[in-house]
Amino acid sequence: MTAGRGGALLVVGDVVTDVVARHRGPLATGTDTAASIRTLPGGAGANVACWAAHRGCPDVRMLGRVGADSAGWHERELACHGVRPHLVVDAQAPTGTVICLVDTGEAAERTFLTDSGACLRLDPGDWSDALLDGVAWLHLSGYLLFSEPSRALVAAALESARARGVPVSLDPASAGFLVGLGVERFLELVAGVAVLLPSRDEACLLTGLPDTADAAAKLSRHIPLVVAKQGARGALVARSGAVRARVPAVPATPRDTTGAGDAFTGAFLAALLAGAEAEEAAAEGCRAGAQAVERVGGRPPASR
């Protein structure tokens, strides 16, 4: 699949505030654990948009919903990363917040505590067919599937994209939330998606298979192109029921793995829109993922 045909990338999804707490070793329950704490802009959808712009996509747009408490900050942060924000300001709910607990040991593994706030209150009233004017590709954050209002928005966006011939990609976003949604419901909701970008855990969960390659191959019988992200093991590209390419990871020294999958997705989409084949785009994704894990937070360096 080659998408290079000009036009913008529209990302629809979550814009949240990340509170990143980097600690070493286990948390000391019931008392203090020393940590380095930073408040940063985040959200899987917003991170993807910023990485796509950082990796050369000239026109990236972001539709999300935020609270009035931090709308201006998030708009400025997206803009300084080269993203055109289309943020709906929620008068009732605050901006979503994620506490990212990052163990500063060798793997820099992270655990999320998520308060979705306004971001899962996106609904069909926030969608307009005009959002697709000049758009060559639509990317949806899988977090949108985890509430009824945003599921309805996904259906409206997919219908609009289908009517205009705009291809759609989706990142399942969260193995934990997928358990609650259910596999059959997920596959029903993503019918018509051209590209699925699951993590290793998400691919295995969606298929019930323990091996990522087998899982990616099985998913590619439902979705034309599946790109499974495996972290330090690189990525797999699957089509028509078989793995077609195994893309190696780029060596990196992790500081924080928050947003590494978003970096992969953003760079992958930027390369695809520039005309790269899927395997080449996945290699770009691996390069961006390596860059991401060596930074704190889920965003690339700002362009300001």
TrEMBL record:
Enumerate the UniProt keywords alphabetically. Kinase, Transferase
Q: Does the keyword Transferase apply?
A: yes
Q: Where is the signal peptide?
A: none
What Gene3D superfamilies does the database record attribute to this sequence? 3.40.1190.20
Q: Where is the Carbohydrate kinase PfkB domain?
A: 9-301
Q: Which residues cross the membrane?
A: none
Cite the Pfam families for this sequence.
Answer: PfkB
Q: Please verify whether the record's keywords include Kinase.
A: yes
GO MF terms listed in the record are: kinase activity
| InterPro entries with a match to the protein in the record | Carboh/pur_kinase_PfkB_CS (IPR002173), PfkB_dom (IPR011611), Ribokinase-like (IPR029056)
Source species, domain of life: Bacteria
- Do you know which PANTHER family this protein is assigned to? PFKB DOMAIN PROTEIN (PTHR10584:SF167), SUGAR KINASE (PTHR10584)
* Protein's UniProt name: Sugar kinase
Species this chain originates from = Streptomyces adustus
